[in-house]
Structures are given as structure tokens and as C-alpha cells.
């Protein structure tokens, strides 16, 4: 189970994931605690902040542990109003990768995800230009692996004709189950699936069934939601985010939470009801 760094950024009015952390010492403590707890996968992006989250990761963790995998995203930018417009031209992709390299203090990035689609779901859009640019940067040794974010199964097939894809990062959780068949197909190919908003994102999961299961297991609803994801498929990589050391510790405990069959049946019904 990894750590998603989005919540390290601050907020400025209606502009979410914007500006420095509200509590800088607290954010530093979260990063240090994550590494001390054995987390070896950090998901981040230069458009968190923008730039400030990556700069903080570098400040706190560089030089990085040998086993730490840092995954970033390109394909969007931040406007002054806080919006997240696409940035998918060849030059924008090249510039974004170099910005990430500089802000993270890396010579090569372990994984770069190409962010497509809308905020929570894929859209039918051309992506040969930005993906080809990433493939060329990989050939140059600036990227080790390439992933996709917010894509459909059809788009994955199109992307695989251009370059190898090692992971897919889509919107998915116990209540948002659109990608069920996609996850199984990815597992069959040995491709990792990274659910973003595993706890609901900006609208936290609300479910009486989730609460009931959590109470029966003496756990928090969020721990149960994460444990369900880990049980969902062998190719699942979790990146829950938080700006609190206490919540980080709670999230990590989900990795050892056992879910009885009765609990799994009840949790599975949440997604069925949502569908």
C-alpha cells in the first residue's frame, strides 16, 4: 500500500490542491512517517500545488530510499483560477517531465502516468501525440515506465500499440465499480491497477453498510473500504492520501484487516446498489 501526496497541498478559497500545506510541519511528518512505516510507493504530480508538493517531497525525502518508487502524472496544468485544463501537446508533455525531474530531484522518474479523460471518467479523445512523446522520453532514459490515468479498455489497447503500459490509474472504490471487468482484464495481463479516490476523494464515502461492517470489525469505515480494495484483486495498488499522521497510520492498518465472507458480501452490495 502506497501513499498519495495530493492532500499535502493546501487550499485557497475554492481552489483545491492549491498552495503550500496548511500545516507544513505536519506535512513533513506525514512523509517521514510514511517512509518509516515501509511505504515504498508515492503517487504525486507537479500540478499538486502546483509544484509545491513535489518540492516538499524532495526537501523531506531526498536522497530517496533505494526501494522507493515515485510515480507522477502529466497531461494537465493548473490555471490561476484553480482549474485543471489538459496539457497534452508534445511540448507540454516534454516540459512537464523535465519540471517533475527538477522538482523531485531525479535523473529518471520511475513511472509517469499520462492523465487523460475527465475528472472521474474517460472520454473519447486522441492521445497519440502525448503518449508518443512519453515513449521517446523513456527511450532517452528520463522515464523508466509509462502508465495511463482515466482511460477505457479500448484506449489501453490503442496505447499498447505505441508503448508498454505498466499501470492504469482510474476512479474506483467500493461504491464506484465501473471498472470491475477492466480490473480483471488488467490482472490477466499483469498490469497494475491504481484506484484514485479510493476513499471517495472530495466527497468521502457515505454508506450505512460500510459503517455497519466497520463497527462489527472494530475498524473505521475508511479502513474497511481500503481493505476491500486490497481483497478485490491481486493487481491492486492503493494510494490513499492524507495530511494527518494519525490518518496515515489508520490507513496503513487496512493492509492487515481481515474481512470475513459475510462482510465482503455486504460491501459488494454497496457497488451493486450504486449501479
Descriptive keywords:
275 residues, alpha/beta, 7-stranded parallel sheet, two-stranded antiparallel ribbon, 10 helices, 41% helix
Q: Any idea what the radius of gyration is?
A: 18 Å
- Uncertain residue segments: none
What does the main sheet amount to?
Answer: 7 strands, parallel
Secondary-structure-based class equals alpha/beta
Concise summary:
This protein is an alpha/beta fold.
Would you mind describing this structure in some detail?
This protein is of the alpha/beta class and 275 residues long. The chain is 41% helix and 14% strand. It contains ten helices and nine strands. It has helices at residues 24-36, 52-61, 90-104, 128-139, 153-160, 180-189, 208-216, 221-232, 245-253, 261-274, and strands at residues 3-4, 11-12, 15-16, 41-43, 69-74, 109-115, 143-149, 167-171, 192-196. The protein has a seven-stranded parallel beta sheet with strand order 1-4-5-6-7-8-9. Strands 2-3 form a two-stranded antiparallel ribbon. Helix 3 packs across helix 4 and helix 7 (208-216) packs across helix 8 (221-232). The two termini are 27 Å apart. 45% of the residues are buried. The model has no long low-confidence stretch (mean pLDDT 95).
Amino acid at each position: 500500500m502506497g501513499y498519495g501526496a495530493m492532500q499535502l497541498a493546501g487550499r485557497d478559497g475554492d481552489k483545491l490542491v492549491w498552495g503550500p500545506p496548511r500545516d507544513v510541519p505536519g506535512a513533513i511528518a506525514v512523509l517521514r512517517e510514511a517512509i518509516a512505516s515501509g511505504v515504498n510507493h508515492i503517487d504525486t504530480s507537479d500540478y499538486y500545488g502546483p509544484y509545491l508538493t513535489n518540492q516538499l517531497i524532495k526537501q523531506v525525502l531526498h536522497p530517496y530510499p533505494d526501494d522507493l518508487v515515485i510515480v507522477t502524472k502529466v497531461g494537465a496544468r493548473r490555471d490561476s483560477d484553480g482549474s485543471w485544463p489538459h496539457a497534452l501537446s508534445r511540448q507540454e508533455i516534454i516540459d512537464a517531465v523535465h519540471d517533475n525531474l527538477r522538482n523531485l530531484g531525479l535523473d529518471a522518474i520511475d513511472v509517469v502516468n499520462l492523465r487523460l479523460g475527465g475528472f472521474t471518467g474517460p472520454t473519447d479523445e486522441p492521445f497519440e501525440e502525448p503518449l508518443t512523446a512519453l515513449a521517446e522520453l523513456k527511450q532517452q532514459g528520463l522515464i523508466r515506465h509509462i502508465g495511463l490515468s482515466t482511460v477505457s479498455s479500448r484506449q489501453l489497447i490503442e496505447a499498447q500499440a505505441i508503448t508498454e503500459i505498466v499501470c492504469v490509474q482510474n476512479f474506483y472504490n467500493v461504491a464506484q465499480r465501473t471498472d470491475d471487468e477492466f480490473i480483471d482484464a488488467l490482472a490477466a495481463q499483469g498490469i497494475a491497477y491504481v484506484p484514485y479516490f479510493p476513499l471517495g476523494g472530495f466527497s468521502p464515502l457515505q454508506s450505512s453498510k460500510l459503517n455497519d461492517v466497520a463497527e462489527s470489525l472494530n475498524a473505521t469505515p475508511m479502513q474497511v473500504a481500503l481493505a476491500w480494495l486490497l481483497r478485490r484483486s491481486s493487481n491492486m495498488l492503493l494510494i490513499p492520501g492524507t495530511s494527518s499522521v494519525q490518518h496515515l497510520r489508520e490507513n496503513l492498518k487496512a493492509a492487515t484487516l481481515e474481512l470475513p465472507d459475510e462482510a465482503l458480501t455486504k460491501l459488494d452490495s454497496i457497488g451493486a446498489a450504486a449501479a
